[in-house]
Amino acid sequence: MALVGLLPWVEPASAKVYWLTVSIHEDLQGSLGEEQVKQILQTASSIMKHQTGSWTNDCDVEFKLSGQIQFFNSAPAHIKNAKDLEAVHLVPADVKVVQEINYCLGKFRKKGFAGCAWRAGGRQKTVIVKLGLAAEGNLWAHEFGHTTCLPHRMAEQSLMTPCPIGLLSWRITQNECQHFLDGPMLCPSEGPSVKCSKK
């Protein structure tokens, strides 16, 4: 019997698309426009499918801008403590852009953080980033990963590195890809912290 003609035709699965709202502190008006945000999100999407040498991320996830960029002044542009961090988390947007993040992970740091998705008590996280990093697409993807409950992972070129995020921070595992596909969720705990080794 010839069964070849009876094999089911399977439509290829389409990418998981996250339409993200973006709000920028009004002190930063004019420093980040719609086209720049779209480019950052395109770069973050490219990381999900990035391939170099024998490593391929092969994660069918895309990030796109939803609506127009909004501006906020209901929370500070400089995050210095838990109260500031919570106020920014409560701004109604998926991604919030601020001028400075000196408080994250339950601690204060004078040199600050490039991004923060940490939120005490396992509550719903949102992405908070500051401007001025060369690898903004990598940073936004990294922080979005934390909203899916991904912890830091120490490995060469890991997107989820605890070390400063750079253009070479892009590798994700299949488990990490599954988190990106599953999307943001309430994280029961922050889990053990992985420290960046100082060289």
Could you characterize what this model shows?
The chain has 4 helices and 12 strands. It is α/β, with parallel strands linked by helices and 199 residues long. It has a 5-stranded mixed β-sheet with strand order 6-2-8-12-11. Strand 3 and strand 4 form a beta hairpin. Helix 1 packs across helix 3. It starts with 15 loop residues before the first strand and ends in a 17-residue tail after the last helix. The N terminus is likely disordered.
Main attributes of the structure:
disordered N terminus; 4 helices; 12 strands; 199 residues; alpha/beta
The geometry reads as globular
Q: Which regions are unreliable across 5 or more consecutive residues at pLDDT < 50?
A: 1-12
Strand content: 15-25%
Instruction: Please provide the ordered H/E string of secondary-structure elements.
Output: EEHEEEEEHEEEEEHH
Helical amount: 10-25%
At a glance:
This protein has helices at residues 34-48, 82-89, 136-147, 174-182; strands at residues 16-20, 22-25, 51-52, 55-56, 61-65, 70-72, 78-79, 95-98, 100-104, 107-113, 115-116, 127-130. It has 199 residues and is an alpha/beta fold. It starts with 15 loop residues before the first strand and ends in a 17-residue tail after the last helix.
List the SSEs and their pairings.
Elements: E1 16-20, E2 22-25, H1 34-48, E3 51-52, E4 55-56, E5 61-65, E6 70-72, E7 78-79, H2 82-89, E8 95-98, E9 100-104, E10 107-113, E11 115-116, E12 127-130, H3 136-147, H4 174-182
Parallel strand pairs: 1-5, 2-6, 2-8, 7-9, 8-12
Antiparallel strand pairs: 3-4, 9-10, 11-12
